[in-house]
Fold this sequence. Notes:
With about 300 residues, chain A is mainly alpha-helical.
Amino acid sequence: xxxxxxxxxxxxxxxxxxxxxxxxxxxxxVDRKLVARFQNRIGPRWFQPLADLVKxxxxxxxxxxxxxxxxxxxxxxFALASALTAALYVPMVGLKPAYTFQGDLIVTIYLLSxxxxxxxxxxxxTVDRFALVGAxxxxxxxxxxxxxxxLALLGPAIAAQSWQIGNINEFAGQNLWMLVAQPIGFLVAxxxxxxxxxxPPFDAPEAETEIVAGALTEYSGRGLALFxxxxxxxxxxxxxxxxxxxxxxxxxxxDFILKTxxxxxxxxxxxxxxxxxxxxxxxxxxxxxxxxLAVIQLIxxxxxxxxxxxxx
Amino acid sequence: xxxxxxxxxxxxxxxxxxxxxxxxxxxxxxxxTGATLRLGYVHRGIEKGAEQRTWTQNLYLxxxxxxxxxxxxxxxxxxxxxxxxxxxAPPRARAIRQVIAELERLHSHLLWLGxxxxxxxxxxxxxxxxxDREVVMDLLELVSGNRVNYSANLLGGVKFDITAEQKVRIxxxxxxxxxxxxxxxxxxxxxxxFLGRTRGVGLLSREEAERLGAVGPTAxxxxxxxxxxxxxxxxxxxxxxxxxxVSQQGDLQARFVVxxxxxxxxxxxxxxxxxxxxxxxxxxxxxxxxxxxxxVSRVEAPRGELFYFIVSGGGDKPERVKVRTPSLANWxxxxxxxxxxKLADIPMLVAGIDPCFSCNxx
Lengths: 312, 362
């Protein structure tokens, strides 16, 4: 444990729990506001995501017929729990990660995948056609994004010679920004992040005009609120990871806000620029090109280090 | 295993549909193997209601068959009744009718551009095109007092005139719209992600289009040279003709290009009319009882050929008004081209014919 706070405080209030939930809502607001302004709209007011959350929590939860009741209630909890847990290992708000151990990079990525997997399972366990098609697309997109995203996060890990997010963060802070040193990796990580979060143009799994709401079509009330909260927190954690690795590490709250919001600006811009890709275009594009790019980047890093040891 | 048919219901309630209808899409994974369609959800019995209203009251009713192409419905009706009565509307009235019809075509095509972009997930284009469409809506409100259902037609002419200062405002608005449509044409032809959703999708050959009876921009995008404004000019189209816009490509991208090019033609012809407006009175006297007879009245709505068949028994109410809207003719193309595409293409295919369910359900 690297933060000198009581574990319960870390889990429930700061930097996990309550603070994280509020941060997720704040980032959702910034994302929606930016996208709205890019589209020449006004956009929501600052408390809109909070209002949405409170409204959803207060609505009746309708359990559809033919669904597995246990899974129906548990999956949103899994999703939210895994998102909240993943936050313990990343440098939230620029402070040291609350907990750190060898290999926590893999654990964090795994926990983020559990969230997407929960959504896919939630869709697959209903009898609604839209949810089934949405679940298929979610899981397909999960497969095509995990590999390149992981490889893109692997690049800085190799450069820092460590699997611990804390150490990679330190390394990033002391050396040239990896945005400059590994630009291909940054591009893969950014696009991979958008695919992971199912943001447009990679929102085929929840394409509103095709399959209503994808895997979450049957959810309402509390279940939907928890899933949406999980996605918001995933946004924060994803931005934190990519900013920590590629934008020179996060070392102070001010640093954190500046870098993650800057990254969010780039993400919001990419959201508005493109039409939605079909799921087969998503997979075809990223499973091939993304992985190839990430592998090229890795080879470049490894070759660079080898040449470095030869010369010096 | 492959004999099992998985049915995705699109409608009557679905975010892709702005109006209710029921599509059953048979899929195998993401691959569509068949599609059926059920219409009639917004049937309001307008044709029956027309038989119980006088000729003038029906003008009000026919306009409300559709919100987007309301003027051409009233225009087709008014022209049919005038033909039965042996009356021709004065030149200025016909020119004003054409101006409003072309302004309506502009607003309809811009609306369609936004909706089709939204179906493709391209919300930025949706928001921008609808923002620009507001200029056309403001022009229509300036001239008629209403953004929708302009009530411009009277039996025998038009209700209002276009003054000199309105003309200036319209020309300014048209300049703005023209440069915006140039920009959208660029986007439609060069944006890679958008092309990925439209190029090669929904290919309809000319033979298929003719066999299925397609009309309007849907048919013209497949090379069918059919346009009522050119083939059978009405209103002032003989004095101020339009050029037919045809493409040989036959896919969704062609439909976008044809509609946007039609916007340019509309802008050009409105300018021509406004600069050369004939002088005459606005309305000509019509008898209250229309002589007995039958008439076919055809106009080119933004979606294609709109066909009215009116029977008069000599009284002050019509005996029968039959409306065949363009959307009804174009549905066959969707059902014929759907198999073989992915599920994600279906909303785009449906949007590609510019469907108007209120129109075809009446």
